[in-house]
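ok here's tRNA methyltransferase 10 homolog B, seq below lol
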Amino acid sequence: MPAEVGPSLSAQGYAHQVGLELENSEMGGQRAKHMDWKSEGSAQKTESHVLQEQEVIPEDTGEDGISESFQLLQMGVECEPQERETLPTDSATWCSKNVQRKQRHWEKIVAAKKSKRKQEKERRKANRTENSGIYPQHSKRFLRSLTKEKLLEAKHSGPRLCIDLSMTHHMSKKELSRLAGQIRRLYGSNKKADRPFWICLTGFTTDSPLYEECLRMNDGFSSYLLDVTEDDCFSVFPLETLVYLTPDSEHALEDVDLNTVYILGGLVDESIQKKVTFQKAREHSVKTARLPIQEYMVRRQNEKNYHSEILAINQVFDILSTYFDTQNWPEALKKGVSSRKGYVLQNSVE
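and the structure came out like this:
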C-alpha cells in the first residue's frame, strides 16, 4: 500500500505542470495577438500620417500664395501714408483768409445772440419775480378763456368795427400780404384790449387771394372770433348807423359811440389813389369822419418834408381802442401816429 501512494502523487504533479504550461501558452498567444494588433495600429497611424503630410503639401503651397498677396497689400498700405504725407494737413491752407474771417464773424454773431437770449430770459425771470405779488400768475388756458369771454361780450355790448374788403381785387400780391399782416396785428391788439371791439370783415370771400394770404400768414386765422361775410358793408348794417373813417373827410371824429359802426377801408395802395374810400361813402350817402390829427398834432419839419395822415388799419384801430379806454385823444394819437408821418403832439413842440 505505501508503495502505490508515490506514483499517484507524481502523476498529479505532472498534470498540474501540464496545465500551467497550457495556460502559459494561451497567455503567450494572446500577448502575441495583442502585440500584432499594436503593430498593425502603429502601421495604420504611420500610413495616415504619411497621407496627411502628402495632403498638407498642396495647402502649404496655397498659403504661400495667399501670404504673398497679403504681403503685396501690406506693401500698398505702407505706401499710402507716404502719398498722404504729400497732402497738406493744415486746414488753413485749404481755406482762404476771407473764408476764415467770415467764419470768425459768424461765430461772434452766434455767441452774441446766445448771450442776448440769456440776458432776456434772466430779465423776464426777474420781472416775474418782482410782479408776482402785484399781478397774479394765470395759466394760458385761463387767459384764453378770459379773452374769449371778453370778445363774445363785445359782440353784444361793445363798440363795433367793420373792415371793408371789397376793394382788394385791384391790389397786387405784395399789397395783399401787407393787408393780411395788418389784419393780424389788428386782431392781436383787440384781444389784448381791456374793452375790445367786435370786428366784422365784409366783402370777404373764402375763394379770394386775400383769404388764402390770411391763412398763409396768420396762424389760426380760421378760428378768429369775428364775423365774416361776403356781403358789402352797406347792406349788412343800417346806413344811419355807419361812419366811414377816411382821411379825406371834413369832419373830425369827436367820440366813440357804442351805437355806431365804424368802417375802415381795407385798402393798401402803393400808388396812393386819393379819396377812394371817401367817394365810396358818398355814393351810399354814409357819414364820414377823420381822426382828429389836425386838432391835436402839428407838422414837424423833416428832411423829406413828408407829412401824411394815411394810416394802416391796425394803427387806426390802436387809436380808437386807446381812446375808448382812456377818453384821451392826445394819448391815443401818440400811440397810433408815428413820428415817421411827420406829425407830433402840440405839447411836445411847446
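fwiw The longest strand covers residues 160-164. kinda neat tbh
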